Amino acid sequence: MKNTVNESTKTTKKRPGKKKNFRRLFYFSFLLTIILLIVLYFLNIMPLLYFGILSLILVGYDFFMFSFMKKKNWKKRLFGSIFTILKIVGTIIVLVYFIHTLLFLNKINDGNYNTENYSVVVLNSSNYYKLKDIKDKKIGVLKSKEDNLTDVKQHLNKKVSLEYIEMEDIDSLTKDLIDSKIDAILIEEAQKDLLEEMSNELKNKERIIYEFSVDVLIKDELIKNVDITKESFNVFISGIDTYGKITSVSRSDVNMVVSINPRTHKILLTSIPRDYYVKLNGINTEYKDKITHAGIHGIDTSVKTVEDLLSIDINYYAKVNFTSLIKIVDELGGIDVNVTTPFRAYYIEENETVNYSFKKGMNHLNGKQALAYARERKSLPDGDVGRVKHQQQLIEAIVNKALSKTILLKYNDLLNALDGKFITNMGSTNITALIKQQIKEMPSWTIEKYTLEGTDAYAYTYSYKTVKSYVMEPKEDSVNVAKEKIKTLIEET
Question: pTM for the full model?
Fold first, then answer.
């Protein structure tokens, strides 16, 4: 009898403990639901109706499973416990994705500045090996279209006193150094790359004795905000020819205007060949230049130059580089492009041989192959025009892959690939508004492509005034067609 009473007592004591465990499981699941909904609310990518429905489903699920855990039948309690645990695991996974997205969107505008990388260069034959060796000496600098030189001079003046000699062009800078009229030159990395492309005069004669970087804020006046869920808008895409830090200034090899009409769900890709011979905005000179060289002066110069050329307002910009493309394509699991004319991309870059063959028909490209596909022009029958068409193909393929259902499995990796690899002034509010509209309407977008045409020529440029280089003279009819296409898309209702 005594043993029976004790067994009964033990059984009675266990029940409250089990009930407490069930309650703890319910409270934890419900807390995760509240946190998930708060994060989703601040993420602001879901239409209000969908958000309300999801909230009811998640909360209802928690209470429904808890009702099973309260049952006396152990099978029902087990059922409620297992499905509550599964919901907790799923909620944690989704929370990680959403928090990552929220942090990513909050960092989007952190890079709205240009990084100018400078070198102090002397002749190999000189006795200057350190910055202090040129104290009170003459140093040549290029005149700036803005007051950017002030920050540069301030940086150097903290290290050593110098006499600055401002010059109009790179050629004069080089000649005066070689002729010993000045003791050193101060040159930005993109300008130095241009110098080495145009002339070998300084090559093997130079010595870099000091390097530094200056960040120059991009003016907010570039932003022309509209309600992008209702009004048409233009985005300028600049692809610079560098690896690594995305804020660095460099030549802009990809110059594309993406015109988007959210009312008709149409997109127009208008590409401008890199050697298009145009007047650079903000630079008072009689010389025109290749549009690729606008990038040397910063994304703001590229944007305003394209606005002048096409007589349009560019509302926002996005800037990518070689590293961006490689990372994005690889994280997407590669992309597919249809090659109309087979060709081979072969060149040596950074001591690495690039050698890819692209066959006629559908080709699956990884990141490095996509970069080669976007850059190659010499082996194409239509040269730079063909390269521009390839760039448009890549943009379309990336958009299609990014919008596919399979990308959800690599969503987190894609955000990691994009993090720090592109710059835009569109702002997180606009981006989330677009996502919200896409979720709400799920429209299919129509993409049209157009490339500006021109004729081959050789001319002096603002960037290098003493040697004629290859340029593409714009065809006025082609420019007018581009203007009309953009205008029609923007105004269509």
Answer: 0.80
